[in-house]
Specification:
4-stranded antiparallel beta sheet, 10 helices, Alpha-Beta Plaits, 40% helix, alpha+beta
Length: 280
């Protein structure tokens, strides 16, 4: 009888306090996101304010609490909104949640240049964008240290920007525009319905079915593609020289080489091949 009472009380608490599980463990610990994160707890910026305003319009947030700071109240409001709409309950605003809230998913501009020694949510967003672009291979920390500075310099050099290691507005605009989208439509050239050669430059890697599964998951884990886009786009193909895994196709070789360089953070075997084919 006592055990049933404890379970009943725990169940009520789980409903009243969605941030806790029945076992007392936070359901927000170490989530794995395949989508780009728009805002999360401890962020403080104009994007958070817009999210809070949208949550208030939808009836999930008190308009008196709109501050631009993503705290526990905002996290719980996001969780309740996700639960109500049948989304994974993470308490983090990803692209799907933002779209359902009618929030633009572009990253808010960085109005103050960020440099070595800074520590803020802006720095974390910079690190996450650098990771998506393939220039940052460690966990984001929100601190702008030598590792972040080196990643910024390498990104600036690759982008023909002044390589000073400072994220000014020009660097931020290019960084977020290149790394911000996880949709394959931004990486693939469009195929026309006519019978013509298209997308001849292919980012690929030799491999079999087991390699396909591993590479696909690695690409999703690093946020180069969403799980849905990876399942559709990445495919195993037979060629005279053996099996290859087609990752993406481009009209221009330079664009293909740029993406291949990013993917070499996963494996040095990624390369670009000229493999034209016809559509009908």
């Amino acid at each position: 009888m006592k055990f049933r009472n404890v379970v009943a009380i725990a169940s009520i608490l789980a409903v009243l306090t969605p941030g806790l599980s029945i076992l007392g463990l936070s359901q927000f610990s170490a989530p794995a996101f395949a989508q780009r994160v728009i805002a999360r707890i401890d962020d403080r910026n104009e994007q958070v304010r817009r999210i809070q305003e949208a949550l208030a319009r939808a009836g999930f947030f008190n308009s008196a609490d709109i501050t631009g700071f993503f705290g526990i109240l905002t996290r719980d409001a996001v969780s309740n909104f996700q639960r109500f709409n049948g989304l994974p309950v993470t308490g983090v605003v990803d692209e799907t949640t933002a779209n359902l809230l009618s929030i633009p998913t572009e990253v808010a501009p960085i109005t103050t240049p960020r440099r070595r020694g800074d520590s803020s949510s802006d720095v974390r967003r910079i690190q996450e964008a650098l990771a998506r672009a393939g220039f940052f291979q460690v966990n984001p920390t929100s601190f702008f240290g030598s590792v972040t500075e080196d990643a910024v310099i390498r990104f600036q050099r690759a982008s023909n920007l002044p390589a000073n290691g400072v994220v000014d507005q020009a660097t931020a605009n290019l960084l977020f525009s290149r790394a911000g989208s996880s949709s394959s439509q931004d990486r693939l050239c469009n195929r026309t319905p006519t019978d013509t050669e298209v997308c001849p430059y292919v980012v690929m890697i030799p491999g079999d079915l087991a390699t396909l599964r591993r590479i696909r998951q690695d690409i999703v884990n690093r946020n180069y593609l969403t799980q849905r886009d990876a399942n559709i786009q990445i495919a195993l193909e037979d060629h005279p020289r053996g099996q290859l895994i087609r990752i993406a196709s481009y009209i221009n070789r330079s664009e293909a080489e740029t993406f291949a360089r990013q993917l070499r953070n996963i494996s040095q075997d990624f390369r670009v091949e000229y493999l034209p084919r016809r559509t009908r």
